[in-house]
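B., you asked whether I could sanity-check this one before it goes into the benchmark set. Here's the sequence:
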Amino acid sequence: MYSILRSLLFRMDPETAHSFSLSALHYVPDFLFKKNLAKPVKALGLNFPNVVGLAAGLDKNGEHLDALAKLGFSFIELGTVTPRPQSGNPKPRLFRLPDAQAIINRMGFNNQGVDALVENVKKARYKGILGINIGKNKDTPLDQAAGDYMHCLRKVYEHASYVTINISSPNTPDLRQLQQKEYFAGLLSQIQEEQIRLSDKSQRHVPLVVKISPDEDPETLKQMTEVILNYGIEGIIATNTTCSRPGVTHLPNAMETGGLSGKPLLELSTQCLRLLKQYVGDEVTLIGVGGIDGCVSAQAKLDAGASLIQVYTGLIYKGPGLVHELVQGL
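And here's what the prediction gave me:
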């Protein structure tokens, strides 16, 4: 059924299809989705019903939380959200590569701002594990970025099960510099201090997770993990999209500016995950994302060291049944 629907959706502009699909999902009866039976997983100090979560980016503003919950995810990650609303990069900014089951996006953290997201979360009925992915506004200088992240952390803290620090999108100018030595330790130090303050105030601990790029060299990854371990960051999401174009350069739209996600990212992101596992062992929870389109690719993430996995582009190409397939197959 989804293959028929997909052919119709793929005739639409990608952003239009995205909005239409999420809006339509609200009206699909719950009983049409298969119920999952799975082994729970304990990670980040939380009890996850299964290993399969939704990656950030699909629902940036938390407008579709209850609709997405129907699909059987163990956890849902919203965002990326910034302190102030921003429109993102000019359109067109989302491109399909169907022959590679891939997408290129240069969205640029388009969102309605953290206050709008919080209001949407408060209205939702969803009671499952909720990640909220936070970033900085495009016009905030790098040396003031920590202020943006701390502002968002304060706003979302009481509503999130965990908070993801996104410093790896390729679509906000210079954002990935925050992964470099001269910024990274200072950024995490300030965010961790704010986390401790909020934890003491609320008497509730919300874990911090860092989402990283697949395009960093092993030495940079090693330096990052040393900082992550030093500041007690509890999770790493590996990985964000890539600026490289593995195996797709011959395809239409392949050379559009932006981050590549989907099947071509699998090997690169899994290699990164494997390296991170070597560096952090069992001290940090690893969440694998990038190129998952079925049980074989999902198992590759788990074998490389992930405790949890997330999907996004695979969902676009395979449809909602992918979640059930993964949960049952794994």
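One thing to flag: The chain has a mean pLDDT of 97. Otherwise nothing jumped out at me.
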